[in-house]
Amino acid sequence: YGTLPLVECDPGQVNQVFMNVLANACDAIEGAGNVWIGTRHDSDVVTVTVRDDGHGIAADVLGRIFDPFFTTKDVGGGTGLGLAIAHGIVAAHGGRIEVESAPRAGATFRIVLPTEASAVSLDRAASGNG
């Protein structure tokens, strides 16, 4: 349990990322289940891992989960925007979202953000020059 380095970010936007990923994890669990959150620092990035023991994501769907309006939920159950928005915010901050999953094996999302020293300027990211 060490101290993590600072990450230069827009706190409201990064909060939205965590809310969307956590909401997805909770929605994937039917009945009782677990969600685990972990953090890690490797050289110039901080990684936040969100893992659930929900129903998992099929291989043929994994490549589409960050597409706008894509959802596996029933009609009216989701907009298909949560993960697309999260992906866009993380990319604008110079980071990436990684996902591992298999049906009935839960899902693991890794939100990888550059540390303050290596961060893309938020002004540059917002202007598209990041």
Structural descriptors:
130 residues; alpha+beta; Heat Shock Protein 90; 4 helices; 29% helix; 23% strand; globular
Tally of domains: 1
* CA-CA gap between termini: 32 Å
Given this structure, which CATH class is correct? Alpha Beta
Instruction: Label the overall shape.
Output: globular
- What multimeric state do the chains show? single chain
Cα radius of gyration in angstroms: 15 Å
Secondary-structure element sequence? HEEHHEEH
Helix content: 25-40%
Q: Which blocks of ≥5 consecutive residues have pLDDT under 50?
A: none
Strand content range: 15-25%
CATH architecture: 2-Layer Sandwich
Q: Count of helical segments?
A: 4
The spatial strand order of the largest sheet comes to 1-2-4-3
User: Mind telling me the CATH superfamily name?
Assistant: Histidine kinase-like ATPase, C-terminal domain
Notes on the structure:
The protein has 130 residues and is of the alpha+beta class. The chain has a single domain, classed as Histidine kinase-like ATPase, C-terminal domain (Heat Shock Protein 90). It is 29% helix and 23% strand. It has four helices and four strands; from the N terminus they run H-E-E-H-H-E-E-H. It has helices at residues 11-27, 59-62, 82-92, 122-127; strands spanning 35-42, 45-52, 96-101, 107-114. A four-stranded antiparallel beta sheet has the order 1-2-4-3. The N and C termini lie far apart (32 Å).
